[in-house]
Amino acid sequence: MSIPDGSPTVPGPSRGRVVAIGCFMAWIGGFSGAMIAVLVSKIVAFFAKAPSCEGIPTCDWYIYAVVGGALGFLTLPWLVVSALKRPPAPTAGAGDKS
């Protein structure tokens, strides 16, 4: 197959593969986003001189974890799937002097 300008087309990943990778990345994104958000809550609490709660990073860590987890749950799969659907970069041929 080729596009009207003569360049060959490369088929994208199958729908099943995209869904599987997206679902896998959603859980990873949720956990990693929550952990990063709790780190941000610790930094915010340090600079705001917030009162500390014993045994946990900050008193309101769960709010940060939920928001960060939701953002990670949505953004990481979107980034990975959009990278999968992007056509591969052209490679330099043997005769190219680049």
Keywords:
single chain, 98 residues, mainly alpha, 59% helix
Task: Indicate the multimeric state.
Answer: single chain
**SS-based structural class?**
mainly alpha
| Whole-number mean pLDDT | 84
Counting DSSP E segments of at least 2 residues, the number of strands comes to: 0
Instruction: Spell out the helices and strands N to C.
Output: HH
The tally of helices reads 2
Low-confidence stretches: none
Question: How large, in whole angstroms, is the Cα Rg?
Answer: 22 Å
Largest sheet descriptor: none
Helix content, binned percent: 55-70%
Overall shape: it is: elongated
Strand-residue proportion: under 5%
Structure characterization notes:
The structure is a single chain. With 98 residues, the chain is mainly alpha-helical. The protein has a domain of 58 residues. The chain has 2 helices and no strands. The chain is elongated and about 65 Å long. The chain starts with 14 loop residues before the first helix and ends in a 13-residue tail after the last helix. The relative contact order is 0.18.
Which SSEs are present, and which pair or pack?
Blueprint: H1 15-47, H2 61-85
Compact summary:
The chain has helices at residues 15-47, 61-85. With 98 residues, the protein is mostly helical.
